[in-house]
Amino acid sequence: MKRLLSLFTTLTLMCLLSHSSPHHAAAQDVTIEVKTDGDPTIKVKKKGKNKPPFTGKRPEVNVAILLDTSNSMDGLINQARSQLWNIVQEFAKAKKNGKTPLLRVSVFEYGNSKLPASEDYIRQVVHLTDDLDKVSESLFGLSTSGGDEYCGAVIAESVKRLDWSSEPNAYKAIFIAGNEPFDQGSVDFHSSCKVAIQSGIVVNTIHCGNYQQGVAGKWQEGAELAEGKFMNINQDEKVRHIQTPHDKVIIELNTSLNRTYLWYGSLAKRKSYANSQIKQDSNAGSSLSDRAAIKSSSLYRNVGRDLVDTYQESPGAIAELSDEKLPKELQGLTPQQRSTRIEEMSSRRAEIKLQLAEANRKREAYIAAQQATQPSAPGEVTLGDAFSEAVGEQLKASGFNVE
Fold it and tell me: How many CA atoms lie within 13 A of 273 on its CB side?
């Protein structure tokens, strides 16, 4: 009887794994219940480790950042602003089949009393986008105000509203940060977290406060339900930046890089794209070198906004543009002349990116040497540290190679 039961269980498990969608099989455990007349229910649990082969043109990474913007969370928002480019660098280290991922980021705020109570004090600040300047702009547009923080509700909304990747191998993750108990509000966080992981979305929880308070406040439980990581940070810890002799060169190269962008669309859109890039350079402040390093990588892309990036992905799309949607220097040119000009700018950009990457390597080496010879007093964990702790191991679990 035991042998038959074991065989039935194994066959059932194999059948379910072969017929279930690869999306779900990769995202969650599979539990089979077998009942006999004389035995209690026997549960067989198999961890969903094996993922189907990557089939897309470029591996995808989708990240939703859910930030508590109630009173006392100014420090959290400041960390998000100043460490955005450090956080993005974590994804720049990853490759799959030799390709850097297509990164899309979304931002939600919750717990702000200025938001409608009828919507559980939740606002989708920016949808999943590869426009990292838009993400930076959205963070600098946040402000805090007292309110009620409903973690279950904001997780549910982010799962439901966003156009998450359908690629079975995509890394999809929610990072939710806040300081109030995780179980507040009418939407049960147990249900929200389970729906997330059933959709292949990991939920990482970042409690702003000490570890035990986070555990007591259910933040750890939320992460465990959705196969994520529970972390705690000090949202008021000041972010430290080490200045290097290479920063001046990096900033100069960044200015040169900006001149290679050929924004297209209506006149208003072209001005908006150009101004946004300059504005986010300014917003980066002491993190400008980190931002410039990202701009030298393939994670910083402006397909659909910049002619060079768009041409590299879809040369035919350029031919369809009317003259008035082109930058002034390309208006009145023949299609061949346009292509030649774009290719020249593409070569110039590639050259600057190589110089930026080399300058950044020297900068990182300098920082590493400084830290080795003059270790600074250990500070408390920040938002960027929490991302770094979770992202590397989760990307590896999703089949990425991480430097």
Answer: 20
For residues 337, 338, 343, 349, the Cα torsion angle rounded to the nearest 10 degrees is 130
d(CA 34, CA 17): 16
Judged by average pLDDT, the poorest of 47-51, 170-174, 225-229 is 47-51
b (16+ CB within 10 A) / e for 83-109: bbbbbbbbbbebebeeebbbbbbbbbb
Where do the domains of the chain lie?
60-239+380-402, 247-373
* Percent of residues in the chain assigned helix, strand, coil, to nearest 5: 50, 15, 35
CATH class (in words) of the domain with range 60-239+380-402: alpha beta
Alpha helices in 93-210 (DSSP H): 132-140, 151-161, 189-198
pTM: 0.84
CA distance 209 to 81: 19
What are the angstrom distances between the C-alpha of 156 and each of 72, 79, 192, 194, 218? 24, 25, 5, 10, 17
Q: Is the model's pLDDT at 304 over the cut of 50?
A: yes
Q: How far is CA 343 from CA 185, 188, 261, 277, 392, in A?
A: 54, 54, 12, 22, 35
Report the relative pairing of strands 30-34 and 42-46 from DSSP bridges. antiparallel
Start-to-end Cα distance in the chain:
51
Cα–Cα nearest to 198, from 30, 387, 54: 30
Helix, strand, or coil here: 17? helix
* Euclidean distance between CA atoms 219 and 202, whole angstroms: 14
